[in-house]
C-alpha cells in the first residue's frame, strides 16, 4: 500500500531471546473507528495474558477497511497486508510457530468480520478464527461504516457486496478446515446476522463454538468475551 502501518505486538518477556521455545500467535483486529491500540485499551492486561500463556498477540491498524483488498481504493489492501506481509514480518522477527497450527485470528465488530474473512480465504495461513460481535453479514447495513467506499454503493453493486460478506464465504471451507468460535451479546445489533451465520454453519455441518450472552456492542462486553476466545485458541494450540 506504500505506507507505514502501525502494529502493536504484545509478546512474552522472552519471545525474542528464547532459544528453544516457539510461540503461537493470535492476531487481534479492531472495529470500525479503532486503531492498533484499541485492544490494549479494551484489555489492558494483555501483556500479562501473553506472558502467562506464552503467546504473541499482534494488533494491526486496519483503518476502516473491513480488512478487504478494495477494488476501488488501492490504498486499502488490508487483506494482503494482514494475511501476507504482517504474518511474514512477525514470523521473521519473533520466535513463532510459523504454520496454521500456531496461528489464530480474531476481532470485534468490523474486526470480527475481518478475522473470519481472512481465515476462511487463507486457511493455509490461519488455523483458528474468532469473531466477537462481528458484522458477519454486511448487506443489512448498506449505508453504514464507510463500506461503500470500499465496495461501491449497494444498490448498483449487489454482486460485489454478496461476494464480500462473510456469511457467503462459508462454502469455501469444509468441516475441520478451521477451528471457529463466534459470540455475540443478546443486546447487540449484530445478533441476528450472527445467528444466521451459526445456522449456515450448522447446515454445512461445520463444527464451531457459538455463544450468546448478556451484553451489548461495547468494550465491557469485549473485555469479557476475549477471555473465552483466547481460552478457545489455547486449546487449539495445545492439540
How would you sum up this structure in a few lines?
This is Esterase family protein. The chain has helices spanning 38-42, 46-53, 78-93, 110-121, 147-151, 158-163, 191-203, 219-237, and strands at 7-10, 25-29, 56-60, 103-108, 128-132, 179-185, 209-213.
Q: Could you explain the architecture of this structure?
A:
With 239 residues, the chain is α/β, with parallel strands linked by helices. Helices cover 35% and strands 15% of the residues. It has a seven-stranded mixed beta sheet, with helices on both faces. The longest helix is centred in the C-terminal third of the chain and has 19 residues, at 219-237. 42% of the residues are buried.
Helix/sheet category: alpha/beta
Mean pLDDT across every amino acid position? 94
How big a fraction of the residues is strand? 15-25%
The CATH topology annotation reads as Rossmann fold
Compute the separation of the termini in Å: 36 Å
Low-confidence spans: none
| Oligomeric description of these chains | single chain
Q: Give the CATH level 1 class.
A: Alpha Beta
Question: H/E element string?
Answer: EEHHEHEHEHHEHEH
**Name given to the CATH architecture:** 3-Layer(aba) Sandwich
InterPro entries: AB_hydrolase_fold, Esterase-like, Mycobacterial_A85_antigen
Pfam families: Esterase
Protein name: Esterase family protein
Amino acid at each position: 500500500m506504500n505506507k507505514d502501518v502501525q502494529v502493536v505486538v504484545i509478546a512474552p518477556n522472552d519471545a525474542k531471546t528464547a532459544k528453544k521455545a516457539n510461540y503461537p500467535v493470535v492476531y487481534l483486529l479492531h472495529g470500525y473507528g479503532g486503531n492498533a491500540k484499541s485492544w490494549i485499551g479494551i484489555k489492558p492486561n494483555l501483556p500479562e495474558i501473553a506472558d502467562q500463556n506464552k503467546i504473541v498477540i499482534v494488533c494491526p491498524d486496519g483503518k476502516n477497511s473491513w480488512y478487504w483488498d478494495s477494488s476501488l481504493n488501492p490504498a486499502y489492501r488490508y487483506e494482503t497486508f494482514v494475511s501476507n506481509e504482517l504474518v511474514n514480518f512477525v514470523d521473521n522477527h519473533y520466535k513463532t510457530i510459523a504454520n496454521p497450527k500456531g496461528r489464530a485470528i480474531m476481532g470485534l465488530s468490523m474486526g470480527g468480520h475481518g478475522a473470519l474473512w481472512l481465515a476462511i480465504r487463507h486457511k493455509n495461513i490461519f488455523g483458528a478464527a474468532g469473531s466477537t460481535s462481528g458484522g458477519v453479514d454486511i448487506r443489512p447495513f448498506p449505508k453504514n461504516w464507510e463500506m461503500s467506499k470500499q465496495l461501491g454503493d449497494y444498490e448498483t453493486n449487489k454482486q460485489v457486496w454478496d461476494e464480500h460478506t462473510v456469511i457467503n464465504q462459508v462454502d469455501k471451507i469444509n468441516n475441520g478446515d478451521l477451528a471457529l468460535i463466534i459470540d455475540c451479546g443478546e443486546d447487540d445489533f449484530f445478533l441476528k446476522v450472527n445467528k444466521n451465520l451459526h445456522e449456515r454453519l450448522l447446515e454445512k455441518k461445520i463444527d464451531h463454538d457459538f455463544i450468546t450472552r448478556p451484553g451489548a456492542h461495547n468494550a465491557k462486553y469485549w473485555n469479557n468475551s476475549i477471555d473465552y476466545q483466547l481460552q478457545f485458541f489455547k486449546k487449539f494450540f495445545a492439540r
